[in-house]
Each structure stands twice: as C-alpha cells, then as structure tokens.
Fold each of these.
Amino acid sequence: MEAVALQAGGLLDPLYWVLELWYGVMEGVYRVTGLEMLHPDFRFMYRAILMGLCIGIMAPLIGTFLVHRQLALIGDALAHTAFAGVAVGLFLNAVLDFGVSPYLTAVVVAVIAALFIELISEATDAYNDVSMAIVLSTGFALGSTLISINAGGLAVGINQYLFGNLSTVSPSNAVLLLALFLVIVGTVAVTRNQLLYVTFDETAAAVAGISVAWYNRIVVMLTAMVVVGAMQIMGVILVAAMLVVPVAGATQVSRSFSESILVSVVLAELAVVFGIGFAYYGGATGGPVIVLVAVAIYVATVFVGKLQSAMGEDVVQEVDRIDAEELGGD
Amino acid sequence: MSDAGADAGDGPLVDLSNVTFGYTATPVIEDVTLRIDPGEYVAIVGPNGSGKSTLMHLLLGLQRPDSGTARLFGESAHAFDDGARIGYVAQHASASKEMPITVREVVRMGRYPRVGFGRLGAADREAVERALETVGMAAFGDRRITHLSGGQRQRAFIARALAGEADLLVLDEPTVGVDAESVDAFYDLLESLNGAGITILLIEHDLRAVTDHADRVVCLNRRVHFDGPTDEFVGSDALARAFGTAIGLRGETA
C-alpha cells in the first residue's frame, strides 16, 4: 500500500532524507542510553517518536487558537470526519483498487468538512455546538457504514484508526505527517499576528483591516491537518485531547501569550515522551497513555497556577495618571 | 500622528449618505447622512437601542447599509482595509476572557496593521511603550490583562488604539467601568490628541462628558435628530425629541 501511497513523489523526497537522518539520530541516542525501546531493530519506534514530537508541537500550537475562542470541540468533530475520510480511502482501495493512502483521503475529507463548518458558522453568525455535533455524528456514521459494507477486508485494521498505533506508522505515513507539520508550522509562523488578533478580539481585528473570515477558515483547515497528522498515533477518539489539554495546562501557569504557546508545547512534548515510554514498557496502546499523562500534567499545572496566584497576590501596583500634557506637545 | 494634518485638505474621513440599515425588516438606522472632516471632535449620543453602535459598525464597514452609501477615507467602508488609519476602542472589551496575554502584547496589536506579516521593529516597540506611558500603564506592561480591573483593562485598549498612531479614533462608550478620576484624565487625553490633529469620533451615553468636551454633537435615535455645534445642542430640545421624554442634561427627568 505504501509504495503507491504518495503520488506527490519527488516533492517529498527531501522528507525521506529527513527521516533517514532521524534514524541516525535515534541510533546515536540508543548507543548513548542503551534504552531497549530505541533498539535499531525497532525502526517503527523511531518513526512513532518522531511523529509524537511533531504532534507535540503542532497540536498545542493550533489548539491555542481554538481553546481561547471556545472552539475546543471542533477538533473532535473534525477527527470524526477524518475517520470518514479514512473509510473513504479504504473503500476506494478495496472496491476500485486505487492504492491511495487512507490518511491522504482523510486530509481531503477533513479539510472540506472544516470549511463546511466554518461556512455554516459564517452564515448563522455563530459556532454552535448543535451543528458541530451533527457534523461529528455524520462523519462517524459515514465512516462506520463504509467500513461495514466492506466488512470482509476492512474491519481488520480499524482499531488502529480509532485508537492509534505506535507500531504501524509506515515511512510514507511518517513523511505525510512531516509534510503536514511543515505546512502547519509555516502557516502559523507567517500569519501569527493576524491569528492572535482575530483570536483575541474579532471586532477590533476586523476594524484593523484583517479579514476575519479568511483567518477563521485558515485555522479550521490547519486544525483538520493536525487532526489527521496526529490520528495515526492518537486515534480518532483521543486526537482532540492533544489540541486542548496541554493548552488548558499552559493557560493555568502562563502570563503572556508567547509564554503560553511555549509552555503548551513543552507540556505536550512531556506527555508524548513519557506517554510513549510508559506505553512501550507497560505494553499499552500509545495514544490513550499519552492522553492520561497529559491530563496528569494538566492537574499539576492547576495546583501550580493556584500557588502562583496565591504568592503573587500581595504585589499591588499603582496606575500612573493618564498623561495628556506629554502628548499635547507634538 | 504628525502627518495627520496633511490629510486636512482631502475629503471627509467618514461620509454616510442616506444610510438605512436593519437586522430585520424594521430599520435600526434610517436615512442617516453624516460627514466627518479631518480634525473634528464629534460625539454621537442617543438613548439605549438608538442605533449608536450599529451606526458605528456601518461607518467602520463592519456592516453594509441596506440602502445609501458608507465611505471611509474616501473608499467604500466595507472594502476599506488600511487598518493603520483607524484606532478603535470597544464598549466592553469584547476580548477573550481567559486568554493568557499581557498588556504589552495587547498594545502591540495596535501596530499589526502597519507590520502585516512582518515583525515589530524598533519604531513599533517605541510607539507601544509611548502609548503605555500615555495611559499611565507603563508599570503594567507585563501583567496578564485578565487579572486587571475593568478600568485598567480599558486603559490598555485605549493604549492599543493610540499605539497605531491612527488618523481617526473611534471610541464606543470607552469609559464604561472606568473609575471617575481616570475618566476626567481620559477626556483630557482625547482633547490633546484632537489638538495634535487626530479626528475623534466618540459614542457616549454620558451627556455631561459630551457637552464638556466634544465640538460637535450628533443626536441619534434611529434618525439624526440633531447635528451641530455642542453649544447649540445644549440649548436645543433635540435631546427631548430623541429620547422621547423631557430629560435634562444631567440625566434627571424634568
């Protein structure tokens, strides 16, 4: 399946090279640490760790722009439509002998669903949880139906999509995730000012000449990409947790926005590294363990946050006068 | 802001003609014509639900008129996108309530229309610090904005509008929730900004503030009931007509 998975071909060659480079780095780490899970025979673990680290950056990065607009649910809705996309891919492969990566069809379906949700919200002037719930159920029902039609060949691998799997990450899927990662991080790097303004204060952003509708569309499309990228390890059902939980933790302890992004990435990476480690040595599925670690970290940040505000309470500053004279001069 | 005066010869900043708008079949704004020239200090007053905020949305291009035309800096208001020319302070900070963000990060947004996809340069950072000092919030730059009082938060939003060094400042009941002492200082600030050539459009329900400070008053209740110099407004019965009852300037019913 992998051989013909990515027709984009040549464009992604440098990413295969990155993957080879990563194998080298991991083998180096193995020689230094001697950790069993990093044994060169377990190349799939190398890929799983690389994907986990990418997820730990891109999920909280996009999640930050969702959580602060009360859009935490949208990740969940898009994950379930991505599941329908996976089913479409599997269906095409089984029925029409297409040989397309189900993750590629998942990206397409999820991005279309993301735009659909956004257009509904623009038409009705609100993101409402009812339409989100409808999109979510439709996606999941469609996916399940397509899969049950082909029950013979398809039901086999479905758990890997629902719950994620550390050991089935193929090189071509790892490269697909790297490509998504670059698109996501690159887009946020370029549009960070606009995304922040729109997230914080939509009306003022509109007055400032920023096209709010377009940036909202960009955010939901990036969300769809994150969801598909993270789905391989996290699974459909838990993928939204990586968008939300580290960001919620960072919100507890951060003062500034840039600090909160940095902290959320650090928290997510901790969850990924420890989660994969625990899962490997405990013989558990990766995604759920990563989420449990992330939630444990979140609980810890709540206590740290309470402690911080208790200790900072006594610092009272006086505001200065509004200084009109200084301005009148020029 | 020093080049604001250079625009004085160009046409009006705000130009609404025969604008009618309604969210439903009943118009909220009916046949409003309003022209604001560079350097003016204009206040729009009217009772609750008189369409003040809607009028502001129309003239900023956030809503399109059902009929009539709205122009901003000579362009169709809806298509106008040079955000650097407008500073905007909302009624209640419409902003996210829980988001971790510092006062300085909020004020920096005032420079975003000028830098686009780029980074803030030295001049931008200077403008941000100057704006923080002007509103007396320099010591609060690194504080999380959600942990401040309503008045302090509003000062931060005013600083954001100032940081952009805009030609036109639009303020929608900016002093709601601000302590009395700061309110006086705030109006002094608007006056000196106006003296420096910046056009001010103030939407207010505090009539005393309006009559004390603005040069021109527009009294709105769906239609324009009065538009002229503040002195004439004080002597007229426009208020009674707009509010539908006999109301004195201090707000007491007569």
Amino acid sequence: MAERADLLQGTLDLLILKTLVLGPLHGWGISKRLRQLSADVLDVGQGSLYPALYRLEDKGWISAHWGESPEGRRAKFYTLTPSGRKQFAAERSEWKLFSGAVNHVLRAT
Amino acid sequence: MIVRLLRRLRALFRSEAVDRELTAEIELHLEMEAEELMRTQGLSHEEARRRARIAFGGIGRYREEQRDARGVRWIEESLADLKYAVRVLLRSPGYTIPAVLVLGLGIGATTAVFSVVTTAFGRLPYPNDEQLVRIYEQNSPTNRWTNSVADFQAMESQAHTLDAVGALSFRSAPVAAGGDPQTLTVTPVTSGFMRALGVRPMIGRAIEPADDPLGAPPVVVVSDAFARRALGGTAAVGKSMMIDGRAHTVIGILPPGVRRLAGVQSDIWPVLQVAPPTRRGPFGLLVIGRLKPGVTLEACRKDLADVSHRLQGVWSDFSDAEALLTPYSLRRMVLGDGAGTIGVFAAAVLLVLLIAVANVASLTLVRTTGRWHELSLRAALGASRTRIVRLVTIECVALASAGAVLGMALGAAGLRLLLAIGPFIPRLDEARLDARAVLFAVGLAVLAGVVVAAYPLVQLLRRDPSGSLAGGARTVGGGQHAQTVRGAFVIGEFALALPLLAVAGLLLNSFLRLQRVDPGFAPEPVATARISLPTARYGSDSAATAFWNRILPALGDLGGATLVGLGDALPPDANQTFNQNNFDLIDHPVGAGRPQSVSSWITVTRNYFGTLGVPLLEGRLFTPGDTGSAPPVVVVSRSWASHYFPAENAVGRQMIEGGCITCPRTTIVGVVGDVRYDGLTLPGEAIYAPMEEGNWRSSVHLFVRTRGTGTDALPAIRAALLAFDPGVSIDQPQAMRQVLDGSINQPRHLTTLLLGFAAAAVALAAVGIFGLLSYVVAARRREIGVRMALGADRQAVVRMIVARGLWLAGIGAVIGLAIALLATRWLAQSLFQVSPTDPVTLGLVTLTLLVVALVACWVPARRAATTDPARVLRAEG
C-alpha cells in the first residue's frame, strides 16, 4: 500500500469526490462519469476505484447504501457526506494551488 | 470514529457478508461494462464480458486490497496464524506438553505468590487506611510496648490530630452461647476502635459511645462465622451470650469473611468498658487511631509527645521520662516482620519462574532452528519477513497463553495449598486470585512468550530465511551460535538454581539446629490444657484462691496424673506481650527517670517446676509458706541471673517490682534452669512469681505429668473441674511434645517450601543441561562415530560429553555462588545459629548441584558412547 504514490491516490480521491458532487452514483457510474468528464483521458483502473471507494467510506467522506439503479438493478450507491463535501472543497483548492504552481514552473523558461 | 470502528468490526466478524456485497458490486460493474461494450462496439455478450473482466483486472487481488482498505487484514491474518500455531503446537506434543507444563507451573506459583505479596503489602480493607495508626509506648527505637488505660483516655480526650481513638484488650475467656463454655479468644474493644477502622457490621449495629461507660449494658459484636456456628446465623442479633460469666447482648454481626480487625484475629468483640485508672500502668491495651484528614504522621507524633509529657506530670508512679506515645502506620504494623519471609518466598518463586522460562526458551530455540527449513520455504514462497516474525511470535504467545491458563488453575490450587500448610505470612487468608492477579498472570505469559520468542526472532531478523533454503535442513539445525546461546541458558539456570538451593540448605541447617535446642523442660510425659474461670465469679482473689485450693490437690491423683502445675505462659512459644513486668534491682538501681529493665514475668504454682522438669540450680523453689501474707519472693532463670548478677550470687538479692515504690521489696529465693518462652531461638530470661501469693489468673495453663502417654489424664481432670463448677472451661488439650513441635511450624513450613522450590529449580536446570547434551550428542553422532572408528575408546567419548556439560554447570555454579554470597545475608533474621555464608552448607549445596549435573550429563554421554561406529558410517554412506 505504502509504495503507491500519494499524489495519484490523492488525485483519485479528489476525482471521485467531484463525480459525487452532483448526486449519488454506483461504482460503475463513477468510473463512467470520470471517463466522460475527462474526455476519455482518465480511465481509472477498477482495481484502484473500489479500494478508493472503501477508503473514502472508511474516512466518512462518502456513505454507501443499496438501492435500485435506473436499469432496475440492485446497486450500491455512494453519496457525498457533509464532511466529504468539506474535504472536496479543501482538496480542490489544494489541487488548484498545486497545479497552478506546477504550471507556473513548467511555463517558466 | 465509532461508526468506523463498527464498520471494521462488522468487516472482521461478518467478512463473508462483506465479501458477498463486494462480489455483487463487482458483478454489477462487470455487467454494466459489458452492456456498454455490446451497445457501443457491437460485441457478443461473451466477448463483452471477457473484455470487461480484462479491464477490471484480477478480481482476487482486488479483494485482498479491499480487505487491506478495510483495515482488518492484519487481524484476519493473525487469526489465521493463531489457528495455524495451535495446529502446529498440537502436532508436536513432545515440545508443547513439557513447555506448557513448565510455563504453567512457573506462572501458577508466581501468580499465587503475587496474590499473597500484594495482599500483605497492599491496602488494609478499611476506608483511607493510610490514615490509620497504631500507637505504642516507646523509649527507644527498638523497645516499644502497648498502652495503659491512662494513656488511652489521655489520647481520647487530648490528641487533636486524631479523629478517633480506640482500644483493644486481648484475652482468653470462657464463652458460652447455648452449649458448654469454651475458652475462646475474646477481644473487648471501645467504640472508637470500630469507628477508627470504619468497620460496620453486616447486620445490626457497631459498638457505640453510649456502650463505653462502665455500667452500660454489656454488648458484643460477633463474626459471621461464629454467629453461624453458635448462634443460629443472622438470628443472633438480640440474643444473649455468656462471656467471662457475664451476659452480653449480641448487637451486630460482622460481614462474612471478616475475622480480623487491625490485624487481630478474633470472633468475639465485646465492648471494652474501662475503669478510671488509679495508676499509670499496667500497659495492656492495643490502641489505634485515625489521623484527621491532612494530618501527617510527624504532626501526630509531636501531638502525642505533648500528651505523653502531660501524662508524666499527672502520674508519678511511672518514672520513665523517655517513654513517649508514638504512632506507627497501621499497615506497616500489620505487615510486621512478615516482610522478610515474604521477600524470601517471592524471590524463590521468581527464580523458579526465570529458570522455567529459560528452559522453555532453550527448547523453543532447538525447535525453531529445526524449523528453519520450513520458514525458509515460506520466505521463498513469498511470505514477508514481518509475516514470518509474526508467525513465530504468535506461536510463542499461544504457548504462553496455554501456560497462563494452566498457571491460573495451578495458582488457585497453590493459594489453597499455602493456606492449608499456612506458613506465617500476614493476611494470607485475605489473599485472592483477583483481577489484578489474573492480569499479572497474563502479563507474565506475554512476557514469557516474548522472551521465549526473542532469540529465534533475532535470528530471523539477522539472517535471510530465503537464502538458506539451498543449505538444507541439516546444516542450519545445529548452528554454532544457537549452541552457544543454549549453553548460556544452561549456565543461567545453574546460576539461579544455586542461590535457591543455598537458601534452602541454610534454612534446613538452621531448622535441624532448632530441633536440637533444649527447650528447658522435659516434654514427656506431660500434657497441657487451658483452663478459664469466669471472672464474674472468680474475679476476687479470695474466690480464686478458694477454688484452686480445693481443686488442685484433688487433681493430682486423677487419670494417672502424678504431678499437676499451673502457669500463665505456655513454653516454648508463649505470647509474651502481656507477661512482662519492669523491675529495679536494689543493688544495681537505674537512675530516676531512666527506663527500668523489663523481663518475662511468669506466674506459676509451686509444682510447676517439678511437673515440667525444670531443674533447681541454687536456693529454693516456692514453698507452702509463700502466700499473700508472706514477704513477696521470686525465682529467676539461670540466664537472667547471669545477665543481672554476672559475678555474684543472685539468691537473696532484692528488687522493686513494677515501679511500685510503696510495695514491699521482692526477694530472689532461687535460680532454676532456663525455659525458652520467647521461642526456641531466644534465651530464656525469666522471673517466676508464685501464684499462691494471690496472683491467681482467670486463664491459666494446666500442666500434668502422667504415668500414661499423651493427654490420657485430661478427660478425668476435665470431668472433675466441670463437676466442681460447670461454668469453668477447659480446652486445647495437647501433649507438650506436640506443643514443642508446633512451635517450629513456621521455620518448618518455610524450609519445606524452599526445599520444594529448590528441588524444582534443580530439576529444571538438570532438564536444561540434559536437553542440551542430548541434542549435542544427536547432532554430533557422525563425528562421534568417526572418532570411535579411528580408535577413541568409549570412556573418552563419555568424558568429552560430560566435561562439556560439567563445564557449563560449573560456570553457572560459580556465578550462582557469587549471587548466593550477596543474597543470603537477607536471610540472616530467619536463620538460627547458622551464618548466611556458612561455608559447609554452601559447599555441600554446590556439590549437590554438580552431582545432579553429572547425572544429567551422564545419560546422554552414555548414549553417545553406545554409538555403533559401523552403523553411523554406513548410514551416512
């Protein structure tokens, strides 16, 4: 676990939280929304997605419940919790600061 | 936080349900992914599923990661390791059974002793027991005694540092609750005694201030055990019982199990109603007090010193200006000098435990090196080093836990055993295997597990298990380093066993000397019993004199009795607290205001000496003429005479008795042989006064010299006494031989226990060296075979193996001897006529240990010598 880069993990968490801002989704829905939003650039490996979902749930940022999907299937839906919303805001501004700084560095000659 | 914990717990205990959910979730994902692929790329259902699965990745690995994310993986793995460890341990009973037994014994003994020690040193069972003090009269740091009525009343009214002051007196008296009167220990107390302790009866009320004044209706509080035995249990309250010939109303029953208050054991606690004092002495009260909140012992000491000085101004009959009322922590006083015994005891048990753990550690070392191959295989198959370390640790902890469970059972049994044989340990009856003891046992088990696992773990961490797979099992098994460590274990075991054996040897030596001590009387054929007269009827001298004058001559012929004497002390272990008096010699007076000498003061009838066979050395014994109207006379013991009149003849000298300046002077008329009254270890300095002078006691010891054996004569005497007055009680019939043997029960028990511990330690050390050499022999079988094939004779082989073992045992013994020389001096107070460094004892003990080691080495050496070289060489081909 520890070998995985923090950046990647942190980024994935941020992205998942972002997909859930609009409303509850099930696992596949999250992965699909990520692909759509990133114009197919980001294809999150499912092997990373589900552990991330459990981790976020464990931290209390998202909650899960079993419900019915629009296709009529039993599915596990993930919802952003209030503390998750706060976490998202914090992570987003951190990311902006970080990516802005990186861009700044890269633009410099 | 709690939600998270709950979820983790759910994940742990309902991992199947969680896995099922996960499977459903994955299934849904795959299904939707496949549908998407079918829709967008027009693939067949099968192909779409295949691609979806490929995209998803390894489902098994994913699940593992899921469990990691759930934070329970390590628990699940540990449980798996535990299951595995139990299986492995069960599969090798040859290792597991001895290891668990040895650990169990060690932990059990240590836990039992832990309970005893924590109870003895722990809080007394009273609220805020640190405020409780016992008060003594004291004129030097080593000389203190009990208090008088004047002392008690002065403290009660003047000591402003004390919240409550209570007094207790202590005697034997006939007690009748329904049936025949029995002589029992009776401990009258004032209301302050129970108030200071904070003791409340379970039923009824405690003794209250209204009960204290002389003339108030006599009341009594009894123990639960006594109420059940004699008074019909809880119905006892309100009933009447006869104590010392007076009717007392039972007002309260103490809670079950409470048979001791402030360290004094008794079942019967009547009210103590003290008469106003007419002089400062006598000093017969045990006084306790409770410090006011926030008051220090030092402040109380100053306060009581002031009280003492005021007392000296009031009473001129007691001239010792250095005697001050001095408070001591009650907890410390109840522990008394039991601390020494407990220390020896606890140290012995700890040593046995250490040796036991060393043994198991050594055993485990062999086993782990033997399993090196298996562990290497695991490493090669991808088990992480942490995982292997955990496996080994868990196995050792599982082993130790089994030891702890066994130890707890053995500890409970051991505690009962201790109670049954009862060596003198304060508050032993209060000791329980409570939660603390259980915690202690568990702690010991974990510690033992860690110690046992330590060396294999260090090896695991230092060497890469996967690297040694190629080497095969045989070469790693007998690693030179492991041998050295095991050798060190054996040395340590012998180094610990020797001091224990030395202590046991010294105690045994001391005990044997104690048995040979001349008690100063001829125990055979003499019987003894205790007789108590109800003081209500025999309180006056004239009534008691009349009783004994009529009854004593009649007893001489009954049931084979040849001679009958009475005395107020039972040698050799009389409780001398109340049989003492001070005196001032006319020829060698101490100055005014200086403390006078104090001696054991035994009151006896004139036939006492003949009955017990105490020889007259000089002067005369008491005669029929020594009565209350004649000038007072005493007889002294030989050691008393040589102490106070070293160069002169003591007979004819005079003294002032008990500081009574106005009384007639007392003359010494004879010197008799020493009788040991303060236990067999102390000289028998004593002064004897004639009972016929009017010193009749309400409770006396009867001594009967008989033609028969044992206590044959006593039933007839008992019948005669009861026929004369059915209110008289006569009990505790014993042969004097029994009394004499009983007096050395405490050293006997201590010696027996220590011998037991030492035997266990030596046996464990022997097993340790035996195990090591057996292993060496097995590992070097081939080498030995080669040597013998090359012409080494059997003797040489035996010598080689034995020498190796004896070398280790010898180093251990030398270290142990050094430890013993340092440690045994703490034993000095428990030894009699034996120096703590007695060279003969220490020499014999060392020799014994080495002989045991020799035998333990001999067996594997013999086995080595019977090696058939031809067969070994052929097998190795």
